[in-house]
């Protein structure tokens, strides 16, 4: 998907480059914050340039927690540790239970945006792990 078509579909906007978390991404990601920083739940539109993906990570919680992804534009991937990658398109929903190691990002030839909702829980935190290396990512079929 070319950027102009993607931008027309991305109703919440690309936002600003997500420099604060750049070390946890391969490629550039952008953040359009939809709630205030301390809001419960925190909600943001995350946009990935083609080939961009975040590192493997876990949303931890003593109880509750996890993350919900609402795909809004473009095409991307979601993968849980030890499972095949799932293709994502606008309208798809991904429920990520707390404690699930996973990653998500854009396909090779498409921009991708999803709304990320950090679900309310007790003693929540994020644990960032290794990147999704090119060798692994390049095996995925667009």
CATH class placement? Mainly Beta
| Integer tally of domains | 1
Remind me, CATH topology? Jelly Rolls
> CATH superfamily name?
Jelly Rolls
Assign the structural class, choosing from mainly alpha, mainly beta, alpha/beta, alpha+beta, or little secondary structure.
mainly beta
Task: Count the beta strands.
Answer: 14
Number of helices: 2
Shape: globular
Uncertain segments: none
Report the portion of residues in β strands.
over 45%
Structural overview:
With 142 residues, the chain is mainly β. It has one domain (3-137): Jelly Rolls (Sandwich), CATH 2.60.120.10. Helix content is 8%, strand content 45%. The protein contains two helices and 14 strands; from the N terminus they run H-E-E-E-E-E-E-E-E-E-E-E-E-E-E-H. The strands form four sheets. Strands 1, 3, 4, 8, 9, 10, 11 and 12 form an eight-stranded antiparallel sheet that branches. A hairpin with a 5-residue loop joins strand 8 (67-80) and strand 9 (86-89). The longest helix is centred in the N-terminal third of the chain and has 7 residues, at 3-9.
Essential attributes:
142 residues; globular; two-stranded antiparallel sheet; eight-stranded antiparallel beta sheet; 45% strand; mainly beta; 14 strands; Jelly Rolls
Short characterization:
This protein is 8% helix and 45% strand. The protein has 142 residues and is mainly β. A hairpin with an 8-residue loop joins strand 3 and strand 4 (42-48).
């Amino acid at each position: 998907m070319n950027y102009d078509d993607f931008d027309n579909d991305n109703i919440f906007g690309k936002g600003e480059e997500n420099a604060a978390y750049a070390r946890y991404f391969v490629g550039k990601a952008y953040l359009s914050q939809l709630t205030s920083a301390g809001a419960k739940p925190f909600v943001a539109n995350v946009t990935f340039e083609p080939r961009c993906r975040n590192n493997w990570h876990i949303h931890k919680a003593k109880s509750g927690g996890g993350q919900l992804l609402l795909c809004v534009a473009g095409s991307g991937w979601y993968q849980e540790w030890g499972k095949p990658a799932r293709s994502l398109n606008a309208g798809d929903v991904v429920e990520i239970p707390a404690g699930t190691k996973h990653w998500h990002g854009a396909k090779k030839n498409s921009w991708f945006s999803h709304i990320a909702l950090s679900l309310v829980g007790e003693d929540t935190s994020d644990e960032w792990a290794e990147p999704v290396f090119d060798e692994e990512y390049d095996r995925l079929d667009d």
